[in-house]
Specification:
single chain, alpha+beta, 3-stranded antiparallel β-sheet, 9 helices, 6 strands, elongated
Length: 173
């Protein structure tokens, strides 16, 4: 990297961590790297100001991406994939969908209200669609190819063996 903004070893290390773990949030960067909070904030601001990284707010976390590698839709997908239960819901919908809240609740061994909350967030982000089926509502992934592709390409940065086994995606790409 010959970019003058990456001449500092610390800034290069932060950038590399973001490149290796797209969608990583601030606290995870702080836990992974050995920098003081203020130092990390400073370098992230410098990287963002120089358009080397992009910053995405998923409503709960501020997440970081290498600039120009992820469009807005990809960032929304990666933001969801970085959340454990959203990732697992998407995996179940990809493999066995469409599924109802009750079916997903049983598969995840989580309360219906928890699953419903995650599904609502995924629907708000246009990652899942819902359709009434009698008395229940069933959900499906809006763009399954994009979700599968992003999960497969970045699967090493996720620590969810359950989803790996469920999807077995690396064989498809």
């Amino acid at each position: 990297m010959s970019d003058p903004d990456l001449e500092l070893a610390s800034r290069r290390e932060i950038y590399q961590q973001i490149a290796d773990t797209p969608g990583i949030h601030f606290r995870a960067l702080l836990d992974t790297l050995d920098y003081a909070q203020g130092t990390l904030q400073y370098h992230l601001r410098q990287l963002a100001d120089e358009n080397l990284i992009e910053v995405s707010d998923d409503g709960k976390y501020t997440r970081y991406y290498p600039a120009a590698e992820f469009d807005e839709t990809d960032q929304v997908v990666m933001n969801a994939l970085r959340r454990e239960y959203s990732r697992r819901i998407l995996a179940h919908l990809l493999v066995d969908g469409p599924l109802s809240t009750t079916e997903l609740s049983d598969r995840l061994d989580k309360a219906k209200s928890t699953v419903s909350w995650h599904l609502s967030n995924l629907a708000d982000a246009d990652l899942v669609t819902n359709e009434r089926d009698g008395r229940s509502v069933v959900y499906a992934v809006s763009d399954p190819d994009r979700v599968k592709y992003l999960y497969t390409i970045h699967r090493r940065s996720f620590t969810d063996k359950v989803v790996d086994r469920l999807l077995g995606l690396w064989e498809n790409y």
